[in-house]
Amino acid sequence: MKQSQYISGVGLSLVFLSLALFSPSLAQSLQKEVSPNFSADTAYKKSCSSCHDHGVMGAPKPGDQRFSKDIDSLVKNAIKGIGNMPARGHASFLSDDEVRSIVEYMEHAQE
Ligand code: HEC
């Protein structure tokens, strides 16, 4: 009798242990589900337009000649920062791919 109580106790703690182990990945997949449709348009307006719409400190406006440079170095500079351009425009939550699609959006956007 005592032994079976012990076993069910172990079983229960195993359940909790696996919950604890899997919950970080659960939280991650939930986070992805919260923003399933990343929109470069919206992200640009939220994180980049404050400088880039107005040419603040020389920030190139969308559609500027400067975006005719090759996309890889534009994206690299946007991620790492360049001159007065802060790394990821202070929006550190943006992934590399998200920064890339915003830069592509800026390249093709009309002023
Ligand atoms: C605080 C103001 C500010 C914010 C916010 C900002 N930028 Fe910039 N950005 C600049 C400035 C200033 C430059 C010009 C830097 C220089 O002098 O070379 C620049 C330049 C760039 C360039 C050109 C890089 C190159 O290689 O010529 C890209 C691409 C860029 N920003 C993307 C972004 C993106 C994407 C965001 C939003 C996630 C963003 N920026 C947010 C100020 C800003």
Can you tell me about this structure?
The chain is mostly helical and 111 residues long. The chain has two domains: 1-36; 38-111, Orthogonal Bundle (Cytochrome Bc1 Complex, Chain D, domain 2), CATH 1.10.760. Helices cover 61% and strands 0% of the residues. It binds heme C. Heme C (HEC) is lined by residues 47-48, 50-52, 56-60, 66, 69, 73-74, 77-78, 82-86, 88-91, 94, 99, 102-103.
Number of domains: 2
The profile of the biggest β sheet is: none
Overall pLDDT: 80
* Percent in helix: 55-70%
Q: What letter string, H or E per element, gives the SSE order?
A: HHHHH
Q: What are the low-pLDDT stretches, counting only 5+ consecutive residues below 50?
A: 24-34
The first-level CATH class of the largest domain is given as: Mainly Alpha
Q: Give the end-to-end Cα distance, rounded to a whole number of Å.
A: 78 Å
Strand content: under 5%
CATH third-level topology of the largest domain = Cytochrome Bc1 Complex, Chain D, domain 2
Could you say which overall geometry the principal axes of the C-alpha atoms support?
Answer: elongated
Identify the bound ligands. Answer: heme C
By CATH, the architecture of the largest domain is named Orthogonal Bundle
